[in-house]
Write a structure and sequence with these properties.
The chain has 204 residues and is of the alpha/beta class. It is 36% helix and 21% strand. The chain has one domain (2-193): Rossmann fold (3-Layer(aba) Sandwich). It has six helices and seven strands, in the order E-H-E-H-E-H-E-H-E-H-E-E-H. It has a seven-stranded mixed sheet, sandwiched between helices. Strand 4 (84-87), helix 4 (96-101) and strand 5 form a beta-alpha-beta unit. Helix 5 packs across helix 6. The structure holds 5-O-phosphono-beta-D-ribofuranosylamine. 5-O-phosphono-beta-D-ribofuranosylamine is lined by residues 8, 10-14, 44, 88-89, 109-111, 177, 181. 5-O-phosphono-beta-D-ribofuranosylamine (GRF) binds next to helix 1, strand 5 and helix 6.
Length: 204
């Protein structure tokens, strides 16, 4: 069983997609052992609770400095003893120590076709605003391993989504989520859990 920790900051629709995929068998050999949020009011925490998944909130505001916040975050992740850490809308720059410790064991979903519209400042609706401003006809989503840069780690999977005439950033965001994010993240997790994508995990 692949032990997954999911880090969230917001609505948690990607978390929900993973929960649903485990429930209906599109992801096998995996379980979510912890949901970790940096926001106490993240709706993702409610989703965890409703699904009987342990959750923990590590709020920057509860810590005097970045170091102690980072330590608490690392403790929360380590405490879950995860084989895989999934960033699903996690709006925190990870501690470099965590990235080193969990090399090739942290994956992220980004709502564009990397290397377009990614890197510092490209998050949430801003990604879709930039895509529309540039006038691209195709955008999409990318699942990638996390390294020390922003959206620079090795790409695992991408899925393209058409841009339609008259799209607003909100409409495009929804289409990218429905057609790409909620599809490829569960697919990748299933392949990791079943050894088709190698993250150097011992088979248990
Ligand atoms: C998604 O668009 C994801 O690609 C981005 O943040 C958003 C999170 O949405 N990194 P949700 O919290 O999973 O609903």
């Amino acid at each position: 069983m692949l032990r997954i920790a999911v880090c969230v900051s917001g609505g948690g629709t990607n978390l929900q997609a993973i929960i649903d995929a485990i429930r209906d068998g599109r992801i096998t050999n995996a379980e979510i052992v912890s949901v970790i949020s940096n926001k106490p009011d993240a709706y993702a925490l409610k989703r965890a609770e409703e699904n009987g998944i342990k959750s923990v909130c590590v709020n920057r505001k509860d810590y005097p400095d970045k170091e102690s916040f980072y330590k608490a975050l690392m403790d929360a992740v380590d405490g879950a003893i995860p084989d895989l850490v999934v960033l699903a809308g996690f709006m925190v720059v990870l501690p470099p120590e965590m990235i080193r410790k969990y090399q090739r064991k942290i994956i992220n979903i980004h709502p564009s076709l990397i290397p377009s519209f990614c890197g510092d400042g490209f998050y949430g609706l801003k990604v879709h605003e930039a895509a529309l401003a540039r006038g691209v006809k195709v955008t999409g989503a990318t699942v990638h391993f996390v390294d020390e840069g922003t959206d620079t780690g090795p790409i695992i999977r991408q899925k393209a989504v058409d841009v339609h005439e008259g799209d607003t950033p909100e409409i495009l965001q929804k289409r990218v989520m429905e057609q790409a994010e909620w599809v490829i993240m569960p697919e990748v997790i299933d392949e990791i859990a079943n050894g088709e994508i190698n993250i150097g995990m011992e088979r248990k």
